[in-house]
Amino acid sequence: MAASAEIGSILAGTIPSGGDHAGLAFSRHVSRAVAVSRGWSRSSLSFLGGMVVRSERAVEKSEGTAVSASVNGPASVLGEQKTSNMGVFTNSRRKTKIVCTIGPSTSSREMIWKLAQKGMNVARLNMSHGDHKSHQKTIDLVREYNAQSEDNVIAIMLDTKGPEVRSGDVPQPILLVEGQEFNFTIKRGVSTENTVSVNYDGFINDVDVGDIILVDGGMMTLSVKEKTVDVVKCKVIDGGELKSRRHLNVRGKSATLPSITEKDWEDIKFGVDNKIDFYALSFVKDAKVVCELKDYLKSCNADIHVIVKIESADSIPNLESILSASDGAMVARGDLGAELPIEEVPLLQEEIIRRCRSMQKPVIVATNMLESMINHPTPTRAEVSDIAIAVREGTDAVMLSGETAHGKYPIKAVTVMHTVALKTESSQLTSISHPSLATEVLVSHGEEFFQSHMSAMFALHAAIMSNTLGTSIIVFTRTGSMAILLSHYRPSSTIFAFTNDKRIKQRLALYHGVLPIYMKFSDDAEETFSRATSRLLNQGFLKNEEFVTLVQSGTHTIWREESTHHIQLRKV
Predict the structure, then answer these.
(1) Cβ-count burial of 91 within 10 angstroms (0-12 exposed, 13-18 middle, 19+ buried)?
(2) What is a single Pfam family found in this protein's UniProt entry (predicted)?
């Protein structure tokens, strides 16, 4: 059995002065040694447009010892590199994706179209509000938009309500004053000046004397002073207006409710019937509930990915197993900051992003990103910085909740998020971070390594080549796996992911830097590549004579032989 691969990497050197390439130089050494299980790499030198290029063919042999590789530091591109005489061009498309919650402010056809045009990549259905009829309307409108749009696609995410503990209905807001005594009762329908009901019978058992109860994530706080069989007696610490059905948290604790309620199962079935793209599963405490949902989806033959919402105190000790069982994560900072000390939230956000990236899973940063824009046309400077920090930390997506669901300025909110993310991305130095893969390359041996990590190795080198030359990446994928791997290494240019599966096209809309495009594949690789580049030229994504990095690798082959992987530098 033989496996071969071609990798091009720029050797240290300077383009000769004069001619078409005058002044174009690469001063950094970015050649790569490639380790292939049970084989040695053969390399040769060639010239491409005045540049010295190493073409490496890695051949797997039936016998021999594994060779470890030393990988030079991360490749970086000096200077702007927007255009050059060679035709190298780095486009300025935003790579961090935007999730928009659809609600009364944005549920019309006109508003969904405007959100999509301004930057929405994923439409979120919040099952805590609305009914199946209203959410069905949103799904139908998004599908209509996708059917009409060739160069853009919107994925659909259903966010379960989860086991929320809420206060009962009140005929009018109750004013809570600091130092006042106020009670919560598990008796239904109670609403007086000093007592209101809660929707959860286990509330009495979940709280203890001395606990801090937060209303609406901390807008009001109360201290538990005493409890009886059916009443929790509190003292108001921070007052405010208590309205109907307010969310209640106990700091440092999670409610002993099942993560998936009966209502959630009804909503999940609604999602299966409508073939949505993602579930955002609320209040996940352990991996067991994720496996339970995945088993159900498997029994329904439903290809829907599960994004876990990290928002409860109980989820943090089980974070590793929860993320491993899931298809991605959402940092739901509202409830997370209510159940845990708020100063821990930024650290947890960074940690969750880091872990998801190391597992090659998408991550979304959510809650309060542009909260002030619910009522105001411009954001606070702190909110702008919040978006920029999430982008720099490497999140796949940032999310708008009330800002687009019921806010006064939903289009302006999306525009602000788009411009801040784009500006932040443009200011970041180009680099490829791959400590986990580098370690695996050095210590792994045998067939298992070759099988499981070959695609990841090629994605890494394709990203390095793209960054070094400033080229966009083109990949053809049936499952989306190679596009996801490429996204994981965060190349500075766009990943044009062509797929012949519309479900995969929609799913890839969530991943950082990926622009998914639906196109039928023919049996002729060159003919398909020609149609793809013509389409990108016609839509203005590429320029004539521009170079692109073409990747033919991944778990499933399309045109290449099973044992062969390619990375090519091609001129359009």
Answers:
(1) middle
(2) PK
Query: For position 559, what pLDDT does the model report?
Result: 63
Select the more confidently predicted residue: 25 or 400. Answer: 400
- Residue 357, pLDDT > 90, answer yes
Q: For Cα atoms 122, 124, 130, give the angle at the middle one, nearest 5 degrees.
A: 155
For 397, the domain range is 97-162+259-427
Q: Which of 95, 233, 309, 361 is catalytic?
A: 309
**Of 427, 457, 487, which residue sits at a domain end?**
427
pTM for this entry = 0.80
Residues 357 and 273 in one domain: yes
469 in a domain, yes or no? yes
Q: Residue 522 has what pLDDT? A: 87
Same domain, 482 and 404: no
The count of structural domains within the chain is 3
Instruction: Give domain status of residue 356, yes or no.
Output: yes
- Active-site residue, selected from the candidate residues 101, 367, 430, 494: 367
DSSP state of 129: S
For residue 362, is it within any domain? yes
Question: Using CA atoms, how far apart are residues 284 and 312, in angstroms rounded to an integer?
Answer: 7
Is 549 annotated as catalytic? no
Is 316 found in the same domain as 417? yes
Answer for the pair 414, 525: CB distance below 8 angstroms, yes or no. no
Helix (H) or strand (E) run with residue 494 in it: none
Indicate whether 382 and 459 sit together in one domain: no
pLDDT of 475-484, one tens digit each? 999 999 999 9
d(CA 210, CA 61): 68
- Out of 143, 166, 253, 392, the active site residue is 166
- Would you call 357 a catalytic residue per the annotation? no
- Are residues 353 and 291 part of one domain? yes
Say if residue 189 is exposed, middle or buried (CB neighbours under 10 Å; 0-12, 13-18, 19+).
exposed
At 73 the three-state DSSP class reads coil
Catalytic-residue membership of 118: no
Catalytic site residue 309?
yes
24 domain residue, yes or no: no
List, for residues 413-441, the tens digit of each pLDDT value.
999 999 999 999 998 865 555 444 444 44
Catalytic residue among 32, 97, 118, 124: 124
Give residue 553's pLDDT: 63
Dihedral sign for Cα 551, 557, 559, 561, please: positive
Q: Is 546's pLDDT higher than 60?
A: yes
Domain boundary (198, 224, 250) is at: 250
Q: Are residues 531 and 457 in the same domain?
A: yes
Specify which of 59-68, 137-146, 471-480 reaches the highest per-range mean pLDDT: 137-146
Pairing of strands 181-185, 195-197: parallel
Q: Exposed (0-12), middle (13-18) or buried (19+): which is 27, by Cβ within 10 Å?
A: exposed
